[in-house]
Every structure is written in structure tokens, then in C-alpha cells.
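Example 3.2
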Amino acid sequence: MRLPPLREVIARHGLAARKGLGQHFLFDENLTRRIVRGAGTLAGHTAIEIGPGPGGLTRALLESDAREVVAIEIDTRCLGALAELAATAPGRLRVIEGDALSVDLFAITEGPRKIVANLPYNVGTRLLVGWLPRTDALAGITVMLQKEVAERLYAVPRTKAYGRLSIMAQWRWRVRRLFDVPRQAFVPPPNVTSAVVGLEPLPAPAAEADWEALQTVTAAAFNQRRKMLRSSLKALGPHADRFLEQTGIRGEARAEELDVVAFCALARAWREVNP
């Protein structure tokens, strides 16, 4: 069945993008298909989309060989357009009305799962951070984000973009930079360039650590990233010098100099004195 142009669907349902929801619609079918290709094989997988809006990326997902597409949409205005799209692909598109920040994606879908989404700018980072610990439940994440956020995911030590998000992502994921998307590709155009990144679970974490400890140590270290670790880690309590000495990491080093493995060592040492 040939679908009507997306612009026609938007006009018919009165779906002007809402700034408060971080909406910027992508009409270019070549781009939406490129995003889906970036996710790799979807055969036998549940593809989860966040914020489908009028369904531009959803159309490309339905063209793929995904077993099922599950779309989470908070904007009730878009539900009519998505219902029309679902009717063209019986049994393959399930639309769930709700806030993706509160919906338990893993309870409502069957694995294997891949997230493929053009994330709303206002909640994209929060959503992604919530998914990073779930390498047990996700076979991949392919998302469009603000370029500035995307760069933080794959940044390396001693660069401006390197920080907490870099470490939390690279600890358990292989992060790939896929391509940039200019602001002119959207309606309305955002104020920033976007980028698409792909994350694949590593066979094993980069080094032994636990999520909470790694979060705690990186938060303290990068809260004052230009200070020496001896100073910045004092926020963790009176044992900072002790676990720096235990790991063999110089107290004069700065957070941006340490790689993921070094931060995992700090997290393990911190956990020993904070069981």
C-alpha cells in the first residue's frame, strides 16, 4: 500500500511540532532509511522507537525485517496518524501512549531488542543513560542526538568532549559515530546539528566495576574536571587518598587524563571502602 506523503499526514492531523516536547520532524526518507540501516540487521528483533511523532522513521522501520516495531509516543495528537500507519502493517506496529522516561520498555517487549530512534532533544540524554546499564536486554542502540551529546559518547581521554558520559557508555558498549544530520533537514530546523550514533554491547565490560560505583566516582572526578584528582575526589569522603594510592593512579592527574579502565579501578577501590 502506497502511503501518503508525510507532509500531507501532518497537515491533515494538525501536527505542528511542539518545542516543549523537543519535536523536530524529519521528512527525508533517504535519511530515515539510512538511520535504520545504521542499526544493522533487525531480523527477528523488536525495534523500539521513542517519539515517533507522525511516523517518518517508523515508516522506514516497517520497511525493514524487524519482527515488530514498538513506538512510544507521549503526544496524543500523533496517535491518529500512527494508527493509520499501523493499519497498513497489521500485527507489526504497536503504538504505546506514554512517557518513555516512565515506560518499562523491557517489560512490554520481547527480546532480542534494538532501540532505533530520533530522540527528543529535551530528554535524549536522560533516556540514553537509563539504557546504558541494560546490555543484558538490548542488542543495540541507534539514536539521533544533538551532535554535542553524540561526541561525548565516543570521545577519548584528553579531549574537551571526554567526560562521564564517555566512560559510562564505553565501559559496556562499542560506540560508533555514524553520520551528522544538518539542522536544515528538520521541520522546524533546530538550533543545533544532530548526529546519529550506534552502540553495540561489548562481549564483556572494559574492566570490572559496578554501575553505581562507577557513576559515583566519575561524578566526583568530573564535577571539577580541571582540578587534580586528589582534590576532586575528596567529595567521596576521607578515603580518597587511600584508594588513589591503592590503584597506583597519581593524585596529580586530572579526570580527563584517565581512560575507562583506570576509572573502573577507582570504582573498585571506592567500593571496597563503601560496600
